Amino acid sequence: MADHAELFSENPGHDFTRERSLNFRTMVSLIMSIGGNSLTKELYDFAKNGGKEVTPSAFVQQRDKISDEAFAYLLYEFNSQCGDTALFAGRYRLLAVDGTVCTYSGYDTDDTYMPNTGNGVNQYHVNALYNLMNRTYADVIIQPNPQANEQKACWQMAEKTKSSEQVIIIGDRGYGGMNLIEHLNRIENVDYLFRIKDHLCQLVMRLKNVFLCKRRSKMDPRQRKANKAEIACMGF
Fold first, then answer.
1. pTM of the predicted model, to two decimals?
2. How far apart are CA 214 and CA 106, in angstroms?
3. pLDDT for position 15
4. How much is the CA Rg of the chain, to the nearest whole Å?
5. Dist CA 229 CA 26 (whole Å)
6. Residue 132 near residue 167, CB atoms below 8 Å
7. Residues 195, 167: contact at Cβ < 8 Å?
8. What is the pLDDT, as a whole number, of residue 163?
């Protein structure tokens, strides 16, 4: 990546063209190693461990030159080197999905501003897809918390999950929406296990059976007619 920094820069041909203390390679390594301390403390530890002394403002200026796609590419490349070969019962890829909120200092004009939490804070909602057998993160989608939609993020990540093995996505009750279930039913080799309310269980199973029938290459006309009636009864 460092050899082709222009592909991961906000202004290709301009950013990271001169050699600086915080070059592209150093910036990516430093960002990946940052913990939960203040930026000043993290930069102090960086200098103490052999790096050069830099100011927080210099770090922020260099950080803003890196595109968001750089870290997405790094995640996917890391996973490609991991092999991803461990399967549950020798045939299933188990992917757990969940979300969390990250709070940071920002401005009330940002799209991440939450005015209804005390004095107001800025928050991102992080949606992650975790491979339980290989202990790696398969994908991540970050949303401004005011526009957070965990179910949408789930099916977007599921659509990018390309596997010859059967995939099972596991989630808590926040993912038991009919819109998400319908999207997942349409993705090949993807099944799901969600906690849902009792009255939805029968409806979900009926909807699943309808789409299983639709996937068959040859369907009896009477079955197709019955499927349409089944969907109509569900209100779709």
1. 0.74
2. 49
3. 86
4. 23
5. 61
6. no
7. no
8. 76
Quick check: 131 pLDDT over 90?
yes
Burial 212-222 (b: 16+ CB within 10 A, else e): eeeeeeeeeee
CA pair distance 64, 24, nearest whole angstrom? 11
Q: Which residue has the tokens 């099944």?
A: 191
Tell me which residue of 174, 178, 136, 180 sits closest to 159, measured CA to CA: 180
Residue 193, judged by CB atoms within 10 A of its CB (0-12, 13-18, 19+), counts as exposed
Would you call 157 helix, strand, or coil by DSSP?
A: helix
Q: What is the pLDDT of residues 81-109, one digit of tens each?
A: 877 678 898 889 999 999 999 988 888 88
Using an 8 Å Cβ cutoff, are 54 and 22 in contact? yes
The amino acid occupying position 88 is F
What single letter denotes the amino acid at residue 31?
Answer: I
